[in-house]
Structure formats: structure tokens, C-alpha cells
Backbone:
């Protein structure tokens, strides 16, 4: 651990948004162990490194030893430490559970990290490539664009109004033609309308020929999708 601290001290390490640093630092010091009478210079390096990550030493809410010695004459010690983000009102303390160490000579350090509720979108509106919905969407967009009066664009404000109308048209036609689909671990980017229709046909008739048609559609969809991806990457490179 001392060599790791020396490396961090001598090397400019850029780690952003560190909230917590903890572990067995193997350093005894009076700063965090009231039963130990000495201060070690290596502790200053540790504090300085933590400060470079905008972290400060967190003190136990139930002070006590973190390492328990089985050797006669050797005292228990505090060498497991936790550093938390400066000024955080959510992460400001931790505690120790000596009874949870079982056969280990180190007790676990515990901290409650709040997790805020988050709404995860499980579905989306989508239009499959080369589908009837895609054709209808394009037709509707072209029709709305064609009917838009662009003969009186005399200033920036009027231009912005026209552009905003175009945006509204696209959004409305998307909602009109798109279908809602659910995200799942089985979702495939290469899945096409041909895959869907041949699969539905197979499910209705359950014939060997229909199954072969479905597998061929999948094969062609994958080939088309990945050929396009390869072409896209090649052009970017």
C-alpha cells in the first residue's frame, strides 16, 4: 500500500467525480486511532492524495478497531479507512460492524448510499426499416411539407416559424405512423419488417417451408445491417 501511495503522490492521476475511496491502507496513525500515540509521515501523503480527489477522511459513527489481531501481545488497530466527497450532505459518515467479520481479521465498513428514484423508459416509438409504416411516414411528411406556404419568408422570425412548423409536422407524422415497442434483452437492431412478417406466417402455419423463409429473412436482415455498419465505420475512418 505504501508503494501505491508513493506512486499516486508522484504521478498526476486524473480521476473525475470520485465519491468514495476506502480500503485497508495498512497505516497506523493517531489521526484515526486514538489508541495509537504516533503520527506517520505516510499519512500526510494519504490525506494529500485524498484531497486531490476532493475527498476527506470520514470518521466512524461507532469508533472502534477495524483489524483484530490473533497474535498474543499484539493490539487491535484501525487501518481500514474511508474517504468521502468534501461537503456532501448525503455521504458524510460510515460505521463498522465487528460482528460481521466472521473468520476474517478485518471488520467490514458500512455506508448507506442513497439511490434516487429514476423513471426508466421500457418502450419506444419506432418505425421499421423498409416497412409500410416507413413508406406512409415519408409520404405524410412530403405531403405536409408541400402544403406549407414558404412564399412569404421575409425575415428571421418568419424563417424560424416555418422551421418550427416543419419540426411539428415531422413529430406528428412520426407519432401517427410509429409503433410502440418494448425494450428487452432480445431486442435486435437488425430486426426488419421482413423478419416480423415471415415469423408471423410461420407461427400461423408452422410449416417447414415457412420456417426456412423466416431463417432466410433473418440471414438477409443481418447481412444488410452489418454490411451497412461496416460501410459506415469504413467511411468514418
Residues:
Amino acid at each position: 500500500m505504501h508503494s501505491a501511495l508513493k506512486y499516486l503522490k508522484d504521478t498526476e492521476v486524473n480521476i473525475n467525480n470520485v465519491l468514495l475511496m476506502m480500503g485497508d491502507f495498512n497505516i497506523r496513525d493517531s489521526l484515526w486511532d486514538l489508541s495509537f500515540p504516533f503520527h506517520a509521515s505516510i499519512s500526510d501523503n494519504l490525506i494529500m492524495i485524498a484531497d486531490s480527489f476532493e475527498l476527506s477522511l470520514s470518521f466512524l459513527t461507532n469508533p472502534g478497531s477495524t483489524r483484530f489481531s490473533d497474535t498474543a501481545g499484539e493490539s487491535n488497530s484501525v487501518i481500514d479507512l474511508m474517504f468521502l466527497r468534501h461537503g456532501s450532505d448525503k455521504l458524510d459518515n460510515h460505521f463498522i460492524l465487528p460482528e460481521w467479520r466472521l473468520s476474517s481479521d478485518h471488520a467490514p465498513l458500512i455506508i448507506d448510499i442513497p439511490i434516487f428514484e429514476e423513471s426508466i423508459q421500457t418502450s419506444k416509438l419506432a418505425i421499421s426499416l423498409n416497412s409500410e409504416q416507413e413508406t406512409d411516414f415519408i409520404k405524410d411528411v412530403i405531403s405536409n411539407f408541400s402544403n406549407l406556404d414558404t412564399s412569404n419568408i421575409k425575415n428571421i422570425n418568419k424563417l424560424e416559424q416555418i422551421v418550427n412548423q416543419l419540426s411539428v409536422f415531422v413529430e406528428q407524422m412520426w407519432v401517427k405512423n410509429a409503433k410502440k415497442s418494448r425494450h428487452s434483452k432480445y431486442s435486435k437492431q437488425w430486426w426488419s419488417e421482413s423478419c416480423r412478417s415471415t415469423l408471423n406466417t410461420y407461427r400461423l402455419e408452422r410449416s417447414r417451408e415457412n420456417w426456412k423463409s423466416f431463417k432466410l429473412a433473418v440471414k438477409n436482415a443481418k447481412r444488410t445491417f452489418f454490411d451497412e455498419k461496416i460501410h459506415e465505420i469504413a467511411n468514418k475512418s
Residues 123-236 form one domain. The chain is about 40% helix and 10% strand.
